[in-house]
Amino acid sequence: xxxxxxxxxxxxxxxxxxxxxxxxxxxxxxxxxxxxxxxxxxxxxxxxxxxxxxxxxxxxxxxxxxxxxxxxxxxxxxxxxxxxxxxxxxxxxxxxxxxxxxxxxxxxxxxxxxxxxxxxxxxxxxxxxxxxxxxxxxxxxxxxxxxxxxxxxxxxxxxxxxxxxxxxxxxxxxxxxxxxxxxxxxxxxxxxxxxxxxxxxxxxxxxxxxxxxxxxxxxxxxxxxxxxxxxxxxxxxxxxxxxxxxxxxxxxxxxxxxxxxxxxxxxxxxxxxxxxxxxxxxxxxxxxxxxxxxxxxxxxxxxxxxxx
Length: 308
What we know:
Layout: H1 5-16, H2 22-38, H3 45-62, H4 67-83, H5 89-119, E1 127-130, H6 135-147, E2 152-156, H7 163-173, E3 178-181, H8 186-190, E4 195-198, E5 202-204, E6 207-211, H9 214-224, E7 228-231, E8 250-252, E9 269-271, E10 273-277, E11 283-286, E12 289-291, H10 293-307
Parallel strand pairs: 1-2, 1-4, 2-3, 4-7, 7-11
Antiparallel strand pairs: 5-6, 6-10, 8-9, 11-12
């Protein structure tokens, strides 16, 4: 099956996007499947299902480090596969489009629950440090700042990208007081924090994949006795990923050095992601509550069992 130019362009946009978090890109993945259903030229349910499966395969290949894209797309395929027997092609197309909308709405509701669970861990005057950009973290910190008094939020610049600045911009736009610091100053500020909160691109039994720099912050937090919480939807739980096969997206980038025209023999490079072992995480704050490492292992085992 040949994927149309319009759908290919949407897939390329997800693959090349470096400014949005995993959940936002998962929502875009649903938009791609919805658009593919709307534009489908299939004559029957089997042909339609083949189209959707091919696009799901392409979505998974576009961002292999982001479990939500894979999980939400695979969940969509399971749902529509169950309906192919009873629905004719036009009804199946409409059902797929409405299901895509419902799955995004479910994910947005999950973010609201995560924000509420985060609120329970804070009190007036809590100092919170965060890193990089996560729409879930931004939503949670916005709620915390609106419900607690004298909240202090410190955001790291987060390397050569603009992720930390985007977090600061969004929170500042909501009227939340934010201190934006250079990554090198994180150790000086973490001792004054009540907690470190991180997002996640993927959570597996062994640990958390998130923006590069997260692991270092977890290390200095442990040294300072500061709890580390990861905020994420259970869509980000991956039953197949292990520490050995995670893709940290190694790239060569002049931005690392902050200059252009480097002399021969000097290579600027970086990883987009790093891996924080689960033993360094105090808790995973999800829509289902605050999970310990043992809870995460049990949840992922359930996911693995459902795949066999």
